[in-house]
Fold:
Amino acid sequence: MIAYILKRLAYGAITIWFIATATFFSMHAVPGDPFNEAKAASPQLRQNLMARYGLDKPVTEQYLIYLRNMLRGDFGISFTQENRQVNDIIREHFPVSAILGVAALLIAATGGIIGGAVAAHWHNRSPDRAMMIAVVLAISVPSFVIAALAQMAIVRANDWLSFPLLPVAGWGGISHVWVPALVLGLGTMAYLARLMRSSMLAVMQSDYVLTARAKGLSDWQIFRKHQLRNAMLPVVTELGPTIAAITTGGFVVELIFAIPGLGRYFVQAIQQLDYTVIMGTTVFYGAFLVLMVVLIDIAYGLIDPRIRLHGDGR
Amino acid sequence: MKAPESLLSVRDLNISLGGQHLVRSVDLDIEAGQCLALVGESGSGKSLTALSLMRLLPRSAKISQQYILFEGQSLAAYSEAQWRQLRARRIAMIFQNPMTAMNPTMRVGQQIAEVLCLHAGVSRREANRQAVALLERLGIVNAAQKARQYPFEMSGGMLQRAVIAMAIACKPALLIADEPTTALDATVQAEVLVLLRELCNEQNMGLLLITHDLGVVRRMAQKVAVMYAGKLVETGAISRVFNTPAHPYTQALKQAMPSLTEQRDSLMAIPGTPPDLSKPIAGCAFAARCPQAMNVCARQQPADYLTAPEQHAKCWLWDPARTKAS
Amino acid sequence: MQFHADDFNALPAAPVEQMEALAPAPPLWRVLLADVRAVVALVVVVLLVFSAFAGPFLWSQDPARQWLSQVSSGPTTARTVAVVEDNPQWQGALVQAGQLMSVSATTTSVKLAWPAVAGAAGYRVYRAEAGEGAGLGVPLAQIEHPWYDDRLQLRERAYRYTVVPEGENELSRRATITLTPALTIGRFEAQLLDLPVHNGEVVLPAHPLGTDSLGRDMLSRVIHGARTSMLVGLTAPLLFITLGAFYGAAAGLIGGWVDNTLMRIADFVVALPFLLFMILFRVAMGIESGESGLFPMVLAMVLLSWPGAARLVRGQVLQLRGSAFVLSARMAGASNLYLIRRHLLPNVLPLLLVSLSFAIPQAIFTEALLSFIGMGVVPPTPSWGSLCNEGIRSMLTHPHELIVPAVAISIAVLAFNVLGDALSDAMDVQIRRGAQ
Ligand SMILES: Nc1ncnc2c1ncn2[C@@H]1O[C@H](COP(=O)(O)OP(=O)(O)OP(=O)(O)O)[C@@H](O)[C@H]1O
Ligand SMILES: [Mg+2]
Structure:
């Protein structure tokens, strides 16, 4: 198990390095230079700015400095807000995104697992059919449309009740988290429900469930003791891509619901071509996602004894 | 030796599934302490018959029987809750493939203890202790440590013993063993068979042994039932059926293997394929492959004929009318 | 029981009909066409692709043309409307007594006049959409003379105007009128749009899906949007699946350390956060926000999405390389090319088809998402995502501007997803039959 964890971590570290390098060189491929006339009125000012951001050095040296700073967890200073550290921006805005993301993930995972199990249990009967139609719809409607419709629904509901049931946008208390998290988690929930359903169906057909029945266990006992854990294994492996989907989906939801998260900030940074912020957030998000995948791999190992005991059972 | 008492008897058992009439009018009688072997080609319906004796058929299966008597009780009207009380406690089953019959993410000891917790009402600790004891009894060395392992860490033989331990944990009156030895190599196979034999004798347990292996049948069983396309074509005492097979199918089986003492002969060596069970079969299901088929065989189902003491066959060859005609 | 004389004679040998069970599995398309949802999805897909490419010829309205007189209107049919003079120098009409008066009400201008109130310092004019509660609505103007000419985005619907004299007891003296302007078009607009005028009237074309907040025809925008979305949605997956297939085949066929290295690279590419790098590529190519970047979007999708297909094909190649029949065919002297054509392609193509039908909706989604956040196709060019982006601004007042493109995306994604599902189900059927 230790070897397995170390291997995953090492692999994760290499991936993060790869992401950082890819980011650095894509940003350096940008034609022209980052200081246009608007920002640097005179050549002298431009020189100073170049020096301040270390852009006057040769690319290889810049790359090494960049890697060293990354290792220290220093992402540099914002281009557009010159007195702001990228680190501060991340520190300020990421927790908001994280709260939203975790809430969305919890909603998606519980909803998906329960929904999939319910559909499998009533396989080919009305609950299953209804669930599958809902899943197909949820997968087919883009998240930003769902977000917009949800917002519209809140406005209408508030109007109709003539007191604010839920806030339409913004960030603050628990009431601000609910709807955006649900919207953000909906697509993932549908995807996980579908996955859970098919893995549950496979488990239900398996010999060991028949054995469990032959032991005289009740349906509920069989579900709890034998089916749930096994059926969840493929769902857990999919949580990695799921977290990535929720993270990037957060950009849009934050934008629509005016939530001051890192995603919204990232989109703004791109619109303003704030290079350090773009690089910093990309690498930060990349590292975060890789870390999540590693953590999920480890969690998977804990659930599946085949991996826990043998390192590479997959 | 006391006279064998009837443990289970089923009359006119029919199972259909997905529009196919897969088990057709089967009669079974098993006595306590005795072993009945059920043989037949792959797909002939042996496993379905066995599953029906524990009401473990898929939900979509349709089952009917004239009666099913177990330990003097009729099980026909049993509710699911009553069946649950019966399973593992009175009737237990060893499944075909030990590799897939165990939950891959649960420790072997726990899986055995689970049965004991449920039916013997003992504490989890006590159940674990008994599970280890069972494994020890089945000849597993270092059982305490093995009980903490997961199925994928064990060899096939070991797993099969664990599966058997699970089945006999509650000392059932009837044990159904569905090809308990096909997954095992010859030496382990012999050990498992000896073990099953001992259980029959010690606990006066009835055994329904499903197998492809006629060698195994000969060593284990007192009676044998030969199944073809969902029907029992011949039943009877081992010595009768083996020495003077009455049904052409059994005869072909016997011919397909040069010597009964030789192990691991399959039943596959008869030319042709079994009939399609999704359509009704007018006559004898074996007629198309039967070397001695007669016109009547294609038209009408044969009745059950007593061909010798303790031997029945469903074949027109044994019809008195034919004996007269020839 | 009654027996016939020949009952116990030997049965004539039966024809060997049991071999029917081993008949070859039906072709994939046959299985697919037996599936109702597959047929429906296929029809929808064909219609979508067709309308994306032939649509502009069938519905020839210019998606950029602005019908100022019909801003944010719901579905309309073609109609004849009067051309009115643009006369901003209206000085009001003298109104003797009584209530607020409407002199004329068209969608070009609503002319209001009312009797002067002695001692009033001025008047405030408000407009509310009728049926929107009891409030005064939007303040339109604060004026000194007793007349007003409203030219503010008038639509063909009921308005309630209120005039409140200033410096007076406002509640007691205010006057209200409810009216519905008739649809007209200003002479200037008619000239701008190049509409032929007959007897002071012009024919306005139908807008079956209404117009957007700039008065552009939604149907034609959705059709032109489909072109963009389908272009991205079809080309990118086709390209990256082809690229991946060749890459995977190369890795699988060469094997050894080359295979190892190639697949390691694939692993890393998979680990890149997709959307972030899509955006990054766009920035790296020097496309400012507000510029359309169709090509970088396709390029980024291709560069980031090929590993899936590569893994799939490599897996198949390895499986085939190990299989007995390829070994025996090789021994019999079959060439590599023959093996690829005869054994690899038939196995791999259906699998690639399934991944394609799942990759297409994914690409449509990605395009829509990027365009929505302004990182893909940006407003002047219509794409479903950018249409949604525009629609969301007027979502509360004119929801159809968001819903129309959103429904288009959903139908397309749904159709491709269902098709993919049906395709993989059909393949399962085939594999099961084939295995028998
Ligand atoms: N769940 C099921 N759904 C549909 N058909 C089934 C199902 N289970 C079994 N069958 C069919 O029932 C027939 C008998 O199956 P069964 O498992 O009883 O055969 P068997 O005699 O045990 O064969 P084997 O020796 O291979 O175990 C087979 O033709 C099989 O295809
Ligand atoms: Mg079987």
In short: Chain B has a mean pLDDT of 86. Residues B 17-18, 22, 40, 42-48, 58, 96 surround adenosine-5'-triphosphate (ligand 1) (CB under 6 Å). Residues 222 and 312 of chain B are 15 Å apart (CA to CA).
